[in-house]
Amino acid sequence: MDTMAMFPLGSVLFPYTPLALRVFEPRYLTMIGRLLDVTDPEFGVVLIERGLEAGGGDQRASVGTRARILQIEAGAEDLYVVAVGGERLSVHEWREDDPYPIAHVSTMPPLTWDDALEPLRREAERVVRRVGSLASALGESRWDPETPLSDDPLESSWQLAAITPLGEYDRFRLLNSTTLGGLLRAVIDLSLDEETVLIARIADARDQNEDDL
Q1: Does residue 184 register a pLDDT over 60?
Q2: What is the pLDDT of residues 67-77, one digit of tens each?
Q3: Strand residue runs (E) in the chain
Q4: Taking a C-beta distance cutoff of 8 angstroms, is the pair 74, 93 a contact?
Q5: 3-class DSSP assignment, residue 1
Q6: Whole-angstrom distance, CA of residue 181 vs CA of residue 86
Q7: Which of 102, 144, 158, 181 could form a disulfide with 95 if both were Cys (CB 3.0 to 4.6 A apart)?
């Protein structure tokens, strides 16, 4: 097991996906400052299941993602950090936050690609981009539905999970996938469920606008 600095967040970080953070809490400024002394600085990201990002006292998920720091820019009282998701992590034990969260973690087995999955991956991309366009029409998409993906099929599969317009609970389910085929199938199924909801909401909004005329 490794001992790793951790950054609990209100959102899931997926492998091969960028992460942009504005760091302003003193404890995390200290954490980033110490990581700058390391050759390849990285920290773990886990989802906050209950509680808030700021202030501590949160309840944290036991599965997360390694984040490798790519860039840091200093502001007047904060830092802007750009990182990218790496391997998934299993959290075995949390140490006392002194001054920032630290945990004993191990690396989870990576998912493996099989060329037989390519038709499923292409279907997942079609569905995700279609549903992402609906979410974008409602102003609720965190990613541009036309976001380019990696040419590597394994990396793009995780990136599809990241850009799927889902709530954090469903995104956390995707992060816990045990096979790449299972990940892609879940991406499709959850996206189709969300599509039904989004279509109904768009129709309701259209009817409301017509009533207001």
Answers
A1: yes
A2: 999 999 998 88
A3: 2-9, 18-23, 42-50, 59-74, 79-94, 102-107
A4: no
A5: coil
A6: 19
A7: 102
